[in-house]
Design brief:
By secondary structure, the protein is an alpha/beta fold. It is 51% helix and 12% strand. Keywords: Glycosyltransferase, Membrane, Transferase, Transmembrane, Transmembrane helix.
Length: 368
């Protein structure tokens, strides 16, 4: 029996190395990008619901971008706090800000996609750049950096939305590592010509792409997924590219407690079941290869079966994975995560197992 487990272990490692070298290496070892200003007409779209504290701080940062032709479309999705009033003040203060007020609609109660659809239809520019109300750009050249990747054919741009670093917080390291690993996956598959998702914290596409697929209509019944489900449907190897220069990043404040982050990830992961078949398979295979790798290492070393070979394979796997993760962390300015990789990887896998099991027995909470 142990010999078959050993062979299965080797197969799992081959799968892992195929992902990291064959797919993820396309991004990790790729050349750096540079800004080539295009000065395209851009509508920056921000949808907010009960975000009064965040919009006070972050909307002015968007209004101060160094870009010649842009507007900001602020969407208030029936907020119960002072968000709408703050937006109205911004509309008076900044001439390029336009406000979209969304009233509660019984048919689309609490559905962010409905609010976004109204905002997109109200946008006057041909190119749309999305971020969340709790996000802020890393530089005044954010719009320039994101739009510099548009070409005649490349009409969808996937960006990186990171989280702030919190000192002496292991949870923060897990959150940021998961964000880096997710970005590594969707950037790499996009470079391989098989884009499958993007993040609403930092995403751009030409307005016509939205209408080419009839907006969110095919997944309007799914409460989340205005970013990843849209990209899963609309993106392909011809029309999609990525932006990973530091000037194009956005950041958000991470969740402060494990419960808050766990709830957030339950919502994010629940949309994956609506992905295309191939995308579900490649994500599932990657996760299973991670899980079985650790389980089989424990079994084989516990019985001391071919332990020298197992340790050699273990070292090879970690050398390759650590190199790819390290290069990716460097590109995304998350260098401190390199030394924590072995620990946070295991913690993340255990958390993901917990999320999958929990989602089977109860539905996650969606838009506020």
């Amino acid at each position: 029996m142990l010999i078959y487990i050993f062979y299965f272990f080797i197969a799992i490692v081959v799968v892992q190395l195929s992902y990291y070298l064959g797919i993820f290496g396309k991004f990790a070892f790729g050349k750096p990008q540079h800004i080539t200003p295009k000065n395209l007409p851009v509508s920056v779209i921000v949808c907010a619901k009960n975000e009064e504290e965040n919009v006070k701080k972050y909307i002015p940062l968007l209004a101060q971008q160094n870009y010649p032709d842009f507007e900001i479309v602020l969407i208030d999705d029936a907020s119960r706090d002072e968000t709408l009033e703050i937006f109205e003040e911004f509309e008076k203060e900044f001439p390029n800000i336009r406000l979209v007020k969304v009233e509660n609609n019984e048919a689309f109660w609490g559905n962010k996609k409905y609010a976004l659809t109204l905002g997109i239809k109200a946008a006057k520019k041909d190119y749309l750049l999305f971020t969340d109300a709790d996000c802020y750009p890393t530089s005044k050249d954010w719009i320039t950096a994101m739009t510099s990747q548009f070409t005649l054919n490349k009409t969808i741009v996937l960006g990186y939305g990171g989280y702030e670093k919190v000192e002496r917080s292991f949870l923060n390291k897990i959150i940021r590592f998961e964000t880096v690993l997710t970005a590594l996956q969707y950037f790499s598959w996009a470079k391989a010509g098989l884009p499958y998702m993007g993040v609403g914290r930092n995403l751009a596409y030409k307005k016509e792409e939205f209408f080419n697929v009839n907006g969110f209509i095919d997944h309007i019944q799914v409460r989340s997924g205005d970013d990843d489900l849209f990209i899963n449907q609309a993106a392909n190897k011809v029309n999609t590219t990525i932006s990973y220069m530091p000037e194009s990043f956005t950041y958000s404040k991470p969740k402060k407690t494990f419960r808050e982050w766990f709830t957030q990830k339950r919502r994010h992961i629940s949309t994956a079941e609506h992905y295309k078949f191939f995308d579900k398979m490649q994500l599932g295979l990657f996760f299973c290869s991670q899980l079985f790798f650790f389980l089989l290492v424990i079994i084989l070393l516990a019985f001391q079966f071919q332990w020298i070979a197992v340790l050699a394979i273990l070292a090879t796997r970690y050398t390759v994975v650590w190199t790819v993760i390290g290069c990716t962390a460097g590109k995304l300015k998350e260098n401190d995560l390199k030394i924590w990789f072995p620990v946070v990887e295991i913690a993340l896998i255990l958390t993901q197992i917990n999320i999958f099991i929990t989602n089977i027995f109860s539905k996650p909470v969606y838009w506020k």
